[in-house]
Structure formats: structure tokens, C-alpha cells
Amino acid sequence: RKEVEQDPGPFNVPEGATVAFNCTYSNSASQSFFWYRQDCRKEPKLLMSVYSSGNEDGRFTAQLNRASQYISLLIRDSKLSDSATYLCVVIETGKSTFGDGTTLTVKP
Amino acid sequence: EPEVTQTPSHQVTQMGQEVILRCVPISNHLYFYWYRQILGQKVEFLVSFYNNEISEKSEIFDDQFSVERPDGSNFTLKIRSTKLEDSAMYFCASVTGAQYNEQFFGPGTRLTVL
Questions:
Q1: Least enclosed by CB within 10 Å: which of A50, B21, B59, B108?
Q2: B32 CB contacts (<8 Å, ≥6 apart)?
Q3: For strand B10-13 and strand B109-113, is the pairing parallel, antiparallel, or unpaired?
Q4: Cβ neighbours of residue B59 under 8 Å, at least 6 residues apart?
């Protein structure tokens, strides 16, 4: 089993759609969780941290479920500029593990 | 806004040569990471570094690799004898405060081994 597993995608959605990505992790001792986005051939950029209480930043909502060991990202009212690869990242002591990434394409 | 910088942006080298990739983390950050991303593949953890020593390293980070913080600002990744399969994008990241905080990435160095 992979340490961090994401929805394989790709996701192709029209503008204005709501899209959700899921990510599961295998190590219950993992300490912190993040969503990053990566545009083609660029560095990952932090999108948001993920907490058990859930957190929201504009059109983006992230949630952590420690009992089931998964994290999610919801994007509402998707824009063309949301097209990118979304990476979930799980941090353990001294080590961080990226998922394979889920590619989102938002079409007009 | 402070940012992580990396040099060079692109390095081309012959197989068997040594390369040094350089990173300048954000100045008050304490934890540093190197990752690699082979074209079309996932971002892979190589090594983490704290208090002038390696904190954790992956299976990829074998004896061919080493890291150093030679002065108060630079953080380097050295590959002693490059192989074709070392061709990848190498990203440096730094973290403020606790190691579990969010990481900020540099723009990467594209390494091409011929």
C-alpha cells in the first residue's frame, strides 16, 4: 500500500463546477497535512493546511479525518485558473510524503 | 515577501561528474528539505536537515548524495557521480519553527545528465 494515495484523476470539469479530491495516508502517527498545487514544471505552492476541525479559504475547503486517515479538498465555483495538479502532503517526524497528485482541468 | 531561491535554474552535466545544487532558504527558517521530481512523476522526499545535521533521509538518498550548510545562508545538495537517472527537477524547501509547519519551496534546479 502506498504511504499517501490520491484520487488518480484527471478531473475535467466546466467552469463553476464543484470538485472534490481525496487522499488517504497509511501512517497513523502522521503529524500534519497540507494541500499544495503545482503548475506545469513549477514548484509546489502551498494551498492550505488541513485540520480536523476543517478549514476554509474562499472557495476552498479542506478537511482531515484522523480516524479514517484521509484528507479532502473541495473547490467550489471552479475557475479556469484552478487548472493545476493538486498534491496532498503528509508530514511525519523529519519526513514528508507527497501523493502522486490529481490533475484538474477546468474548461470554459 | 521572503522566498527560497535556488541556483542554477538548469544544470547540464556529463554522467559521472559531480554537481552541487544550491539553495538559499528563508532567513529565519530552521528546517530544510531536498526533493526531486523526475519528469511526469511525483515529488519524492530526499532528505531533511536541522541543526546542521541530517534529520531523515529516504532510500533514494544513498552514498552518492550529501547535504551541507556551509555557512549561515546556503544549503547545498551534492551528487558525487551523476547517473542518467539523476536527471530530474530538484526542489529545496524550508520551514519556520516546528518541522510540522508548512514548507516553502524554491523554484527548483533542472538537472540534465547526458
A1: B59
A2: B23, B25, B48, B49, B50, B69, B75, B92, B93, B94, B95
A3: parallel
A4: none
Q: Which residue of A has its CA nearest to B88?
A: A41
Residue B29: count other Cβ atoms within 10 Å of its Cβ. 18
- A39-77 pLDDT, tens digit each: 998 999 999 999 888 899 999 999 999 999 999 999 999
Give the tens place of pLDDT for each residue, B42-59. 999 999 999 889 999 999
- Considering only CB atoms, which chain A residues are within 8 Å of B23? none
Amino acid symbol at A81: S
DSSP B84: G
Cα–Cα distance for residue pair A67/A97, rounded to 1 Å: 19
Cα–Cα distance, A65 to A54 (Å, whole number): 9
Reduced to 3 states (helix: H, G, I; strand: E, B; else coil), residue A43 is: coil
All residues of chain A having their beta carbon less than 8 Å from the beta carbon of residue B101 are: 32
